[in-house]
Amino acid sequence: MTDAGAAHGGYGRRGRPGRLKGALGSHERPASALAFRLVLAWFGAAVMLTATVLAVVWAHHTLLAVVFGAGFLGTCLNVYWVRQRLRHER
Predict the structure, then answer these.
(1) How do the pLDDT tens digits run along the chain, 90 residues long?
(2) Domain coordinates of the chain in residue numbers?
(3) I need a surface site. Which of 18, 38, 48, 85 has the fewest CB within 10 A?
(4) DSSP per position, 10-67
């Protein structure tokens, strides 16, 4: 009545239930979409920065520059948030 997994605490060959094995991105531990979200966040920040600079230099429109500047700050916050989530996932 002995089981090979009994030596490992009774959990079998795979170890504890819920424990992930393997490298991130492998079949046993699939990668999340956070890296792609980080690329999109950086792209959004670049677009908002470009829009802010163009609103100041080309359009000479202060209100538009303030709106795009607030959007740029929001996208920077998004970049920070996604980077933190990606760091804590690894």
Answers:
(1) 555 555 555 555 555 666 656 666 666 666 678 888 999 999 999 999 999 999 999 989 999 999 999 999 999 999 999 999 988 877
(2) 23-89
(3) 18
(4) SS-TT-STT---S-TTSSSS---THHHHHHHHHHHHHHHHHHHHHHHHTS--HHHHHH
